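Can't attach files on this board, so I'm pasting raw text. These are the components:
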Amino acid sequence: MKDVHATLASSLESFRAELFDFLRIPSVSARSEHDEDTRKAGAWVVERMRTAGLTAELLETDGHPVALGEWRGAGPDAPTLLIYGHYDVQPAEPLELWTSPPFEPEVRDGRIYARGAADDKGQLFLHLAALHILLGTRGSLPVNVVVLAEGEEEVGSPNLLPFVERWQERLAADAVVISDSAMFAEGLPSLLFSLRGLAYAEIRVQGARSDLHSGAYGGAVPNPAMALARILATLHDETGRITLPGFYDDVVAWDEETRAGVAALPFDEEAFREGTGAPGLSGEAGFGTLERLWVRPTCEVNGLLSGYTGQGAKTVLPAQAMAKVSFRLVPDQDPARVIAQLRSHVAQVAPTGVTVEVVELHGGRPWRARPGGVFFEAARSALEEAFGVPPVLTGEGGSIPIVTEFERILGAGAILLGFALPGANMHAPDEWFPDNHLERGIETLLAFYSRLDASFPASSAPAGPAGSSGTDANR
Amino acid sequence: MKDVHATLASSLESFRAELFDFLRIPSVSARSEHDEDTRKAGAWVVERMRTAGLTAELLETDGHPVALGEWRGAGPDAPTLLIYGHYDVQPAEPLELWTSPPFEPEVRDGRIYARGAADDKGQLFLHLAALHILLGTRGSLPVNVVVLAEGEEEVGSPNLLPFVERWQERLAADAVVISDSAMFAEGLPSLLFSLRGLAYAEIRVQGARSDLHSGAYGGAVPNPAMALARILATLHDETGRITLPGFYDDVVAWDEETRAGVAALPFDEEAFREGTGAPGLSGEAGFGTLERLWVRPTCEVNGLLSGYTGQGAKTVLPAQAMAKVSFRLVPDQDPARVIAQLRSHVAQVAPTGVTVEVVELHGGRPWRARPGGVFFEAARSALEEAFGVPPVLTGEGGSIPIVTEFERILGAGAILLGFALPGANMHAPDEWFPDNHLERGIETLLAFYSRLDASFPASSAPAGPAGSSGTDANR
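---
Top answer:
C-alpha cells for the assembled complex are below.
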C-alpha cells in the first residue's frame, strides 16, 4: 500500500483543485437555464473517468445524460462493483444566505464550502480519485468496476430506472457502493444498515353532494371531516402502535448487534428535539428515538383538507374531506400489502352516512444491508483503517428507492458509505464537506480495494460458471 | 272586515303591478355597480310607505340606507310593532340559468318569478300593502307601527346593529315581525319557534418549528395532523352526543307540544337525504332528523388544513394543523361558555408533544319564540284564518343574529312569519313566490291586525306608565 499512499499524498493538492473545477460547474438539474451546465458536468465526469483509466461515455436519457465509466480488466469471472453517484446539484437559492458564492468553492475552517461539495460531487470524486490512484499505480483492480453518475438525482431520478432496465446487462454487478450520505458524527465512520420503505395513500371521504349550510343541515347530515378525523384517530392505539390488522406480521425483528449498536450511539435526544422545535418527542412505546426513526414502521398524516380553510368563520358543512396518509415500512413489509390493510381497516371503521375511498399514491420497499458479505465487510474494515475506529451501523428513516431497484434489477447488494458530516447543509445554503475527508475518504476507498484484493486475488479468481463468481459475496 | 277585504280584492291587480315595479329594480347590495339601484329600491320603499299612510324617510348608514316608516297614531300608551324586512337582493348570477330574466318579473304556473320575489321584496311588500289597506280604509291601526327595511341583509347586515343601537328609542317596540322565511310546505302555514345559536372556533395544533421530512423525522416527532384528528374524534361519543363536560347543562328541554308538533310534521326523510346527496343520514341517537336540525345542539368540523394538500405524494411531516369547529346552540346555551368548555376539553385530551390553541372566531345566541303572547297568538290565528288550517311550529337550524339582537336591544319578542314556499330558490336562479300568497299573505296580515284590534281596542288602551303598556304581550 505504500505506493498508493505516496501517490495520494503527492496528488492531494491537485485532487482538491480538480474537485474545485467540478464544483464550479453550476449543474442545477432542476433549472432549464442550467441544462448546458448540467451536461458540462456530466462531460467533466466522463473526462475524469478516462483520465483515471476507465473507458467512459455520456449516455443519453430522456433528460440529463448518464456518465458511465467501466474498467473490466479483472476479467469476466471476477466480481463487478457498481459505483453510483450523481453530478447534478440542488438549486443554490437563496443566494444571499451563502457566506461565499455557491459555485466558487473555498476552504474555511477545514471545510470545503460549495453547492455539491457534499451532495454529491465531493463524494463521487473520492471514487474517481481512488480509481485513478490504483489504476495509475498498479494498473489493475481486484474487481471489475462500473461507475454510474447520473444528472437527475436532485429532480427525483425520473430516467434512472428506465436507464438501469435498458442497460441491465452492462450494469450487472455483485455490489453497489453509494457515497451520498453522512456519517453519524465527526470521527465516527458509519455504514447504513437500513432504509425505510413507503406506502402512501389518500383517504377521501364524501358526504353530501356539495357543501351545505352547517346550520340548516348540521346535526342530521354526516360531516365527512369529522368522519375522517374519527378514521385517522383509529390508526394508532394509545401506545403509539399502528392498529391495522396484520401490519406487524412482516416486520422482521432486528438482530441484537444492530439494536445494541443503535443503543450505544452517542445520541443527544434533547438536542434532536430542540433542532425540530417540537415541544416534545413521542412515538411507539418501548422504543427509543433512533429506533423509532430507523427500525420501526410509522403511520403519518402528511396532509389534511376539508371545507373552509381561509380566515375567520364560514358555516359550511363540507361535502368532502381528504387526508394524505403514509407509512414508513421496515423489512419485510410490502407497500401493496400495507395499502390493502389500510383499505380494509378503513372500510371497517368508517362511520355510516359517508363513502370512503383509499387511493394508493406511491410505494417503495424497505431495504436492509446484509452485513457479513465480502463487500460490506471490506467497507467496514476499510473505514476502521482510515478513521481509526470501527464504523457504527446507522439507519435512515427515509427511503432511497433506487437502492432497492438496484438490488431488484441488478441483483447487487448495496453498501451506503457516506463521508459527509451531520449539518452539511446538503439542500441549504453554505453546503460543506470536511476538507480532511477528501484524504480520509480516498484512503478508505484505497483500503476497501485492498481488502477486496485479499478476497479476490487476481491470480486465483475462481473459474466458476460465467457471471456467477462472487455472486454470493453480498447477497 | 268586509271593507278591507273588498279593498284587497279590488286592489290586488295594482298591488301585483306595484310589486313588479319593485322587483324590476336590481338592488344587488353586494355589487357596487348596483349601488344606485340599491338606493333607488330604498327610496321606492320610502315612497310606498308614504302612500300607505306612514311617515317615512331614508336614513343613512355607513353602507346602504335604511328605509324607516312610522305610524304612531295609536298613541304613546299603545303597544308598538316593529316590522323588519330588506329591500336588497342576492346577485342574480348565473344569469344563463334563469328561465326568464331575474329583473323582469313574470307569472308562470302560479308563481311570480324574479330575483327578490321571495327574499325579501315580495314579503316586505305584503306588509306595506296590508298597512295601506288598513290605513286607507279605517284610518287607524290598533298598534303603533314602525317598518324598518334595510338594504344590506344579503351582505351580512354590517350596519344594522349600529343603526338599531343608534335609533334604539325610536325603534322601541313590543314585538318584531319578520317575513323573510318559508312555510314548512304548501298549504301548511308556519311560525318559527326557534333559531340555533353559534359558537365558532379554530383549533390550532403546532408540532415542529417547520415542516419536516416524514422519513427522517416520522415516528419520533409528533404529528400535529394526527394529534388534531385524535382531538376531533373525542368531540362526540359513539351515540353522536357531544362530550364536552357541561355542554348539555344549559340545554332547556322542549315542551311536549313542540316535540309532538315536530313529530307530526309531514317530513319525507328519504327525499331530504336524496336532496343532500349524502349516502345516509346520521346524528344524535334518540332524535329524529328534524329534531337534530332544530332542537338539538351540534358540533361540526367546518374546515381542515394541514401539510401537503396538492396532487400526488409529498412526504412531509406537517408542523401545523388547523380545524374550524363550530357548535350550533339551543336555548339557553351561551357561546362564550361553550368555547370555554371546548378549550378545557381540548387541553384535557391533547396528545403530548404538541401545543394546542383554541381561538374563538364568532358567536351568536340561540333564540326561541315565546308562544302565548298576544302578538304570537294573533299571528297564529291569523294564519289559520287565511290558510284554513292552523299553522305548524317549525324550527330553523341556522342562526339569524339580528333576531336576538332585536330582542336584546329593543326588548321586543320576535315573530318569524314566512310566506315563501320550500324550494323558492332564494339564493339561486329562478327565485319565485307563490302568486296566490300575495293575496293570502295580505289576508293573513289583515287578520293579524284584526286580532290585535280585539286585544288593544283603541278606546280602552290602558293608561299605564309611559312605554310600559303592552310590554308583557310578547316577552
